[in-house]
Design the sequence.
């Protein structure tokens, strides 16, 4: 037996290193982790201070919030009540929440909590250029100064209101005084009776302010050029079949209805916009539903006026504009003369053409309403003002006449008429 056979084999400890590659098909946990596992390598490496760290972190941590397809905004507004009439309460609810009285103390601002601090404390970078002693923190040296401080700190007394000025008769006198200042020749100077009220006394300052008006802020820098009394035009306001005063409607075209862009087409002054009788089926259903809600609760619901379609007409010739205007002028003595219709034929300049008996209008196109605002309950909330300067005898005197607007519609072309 050799020596090597007599000694046992020496054993060596060696770790077995195995690298297993596999795909982790497990889904992420349902709840996001509370903290991010960021390896702490310190600031010396520059990993956390570099600009790319935040970008890499954004890529490695995907957004685990799944937003809806419309990103919180209603793309399809059809079906939302009142959204096309300007009522956004369905998609933008009011934030006016009534706070219970027992919870109002919890909403006090932070400045009102704790001990009050003096607002005149000396701050090095905010203090005034004067000495701090000029703020009168010291005690007064004499009694007169102390009494002056007491008077300054005393609460101001409310001005005594004359009870007579709050009476209905005195209020009416103040209103009449405004008309007496504007029209002194028509002022009533007799005693008060059942039909006449004498206006309040007009001061010299009020007469001077009316005779020489001045701008409240710019003073004499601007000068009054002219003034107009604000008056209603009762003869022009339309009336219903029952004789009740009605209101006007304004229409705004989204594009030029005549196609001319270089000059104004005077045919627009006598154009005709006639409402079509038929309404779409869906429009009639909406009108019935909205008006039924108005009849049940007129306070929280408005009367609905359907979005109608209109046919637009223009005179075939610009020469007929003057004749149409004279035909509708009630003060024109020749408004019923057939010569206003003009003549037809090639010899119009010589007066040999055939006389016409009507004004010819062309059917231009059909317009549909895409936006409108209706206020039948208070038509004087929106008014149109027209300045009138009569150069000769006219039914209207000089003034700014206002006309009630109950309907404002924006219309656009639906389709050209062949």
Sequence:
């Amino acid at each position: 037996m050799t020596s090597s056979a007599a000694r046992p084999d020496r054993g060596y400890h060696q770790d077995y290193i195995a690298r297993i590659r596999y795909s982790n098909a497990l889904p992420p946990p349902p709840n996001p982790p509370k903290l991010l596992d960021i390896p702490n390598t310190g600031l010396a490496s520059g990993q956390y201070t570099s600009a790319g760290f935040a970008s890499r972190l954004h890529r490695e941590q995907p957004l685990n919030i799944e937003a809806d397809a419309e990103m919180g905004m209603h793309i399809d507004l059809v079906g939302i009540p009142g959204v096309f009439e300007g009522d956004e309460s369905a998609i933008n609810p009011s934030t006016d929440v009534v706070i219970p009285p027992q919870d109002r103390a919890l909403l006090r601002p932070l400045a009102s909590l704790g001990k009050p601090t003096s607002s005149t404390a000396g701050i090095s970078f905010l203090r005034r250029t004067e000495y701090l002693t000029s703020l009168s923190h010291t005690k007064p040296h004499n009694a007169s100064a102390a009494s002056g401080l007491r008077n300054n700190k005393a609460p101001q007394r409310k001005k005594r209101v004359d009870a007579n000025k709050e009476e209905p008769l005195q209020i009416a006198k103040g209103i009449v005084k405004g008309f007496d200042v504007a029209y002194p020749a028509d002022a009533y100077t007799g005693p008060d009776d059942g039909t006449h009220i004498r206006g309040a006394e007009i001061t010299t300052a009020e007469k001077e302010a009316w005779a020489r008006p001045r701008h409240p802020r710019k003073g004499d820098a601007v000068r009054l050029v002219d003034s107009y009394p604000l008056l209603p035009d009762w003869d022009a306001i339309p009336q219903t079949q029952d004789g009740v005063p009605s209101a006007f409607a304004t229409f705004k075209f989204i594009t030029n209805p005549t196609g001319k862009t270089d000059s104004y087409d005077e045919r627009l002054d006598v154009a005709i916009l006639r409402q079509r009788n038929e309404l779409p089926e869906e429009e009639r259903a909406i009108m019935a539903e909205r008006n039924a809600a108005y009849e049940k609760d007129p306070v929280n619901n408005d009367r609905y006026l359907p979005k109608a379609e209109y046919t637009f007409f223009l005179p075939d010739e610009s020469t007929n504009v003057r004749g149409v205007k004279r035909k509708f002028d009630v003060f024109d003595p020749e408004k019923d003369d057939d010569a206003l219709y003009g003549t037809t034929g090639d010899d119009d300049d010589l007066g040999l053409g055939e006389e016409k008996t009507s004004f010819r209008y062309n059917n231009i196109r059909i317009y549909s309403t895409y936006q409108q605002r209706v206020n039948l309950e208070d038509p004087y909330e929106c008014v149109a003002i027209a300045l009138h300067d009569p150069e000769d005898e006219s039914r209207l005197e000089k003034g700014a006449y206002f006309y009630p607007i109950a309907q404002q519609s924006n219309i656009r072309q639906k389709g050209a008429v062949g």
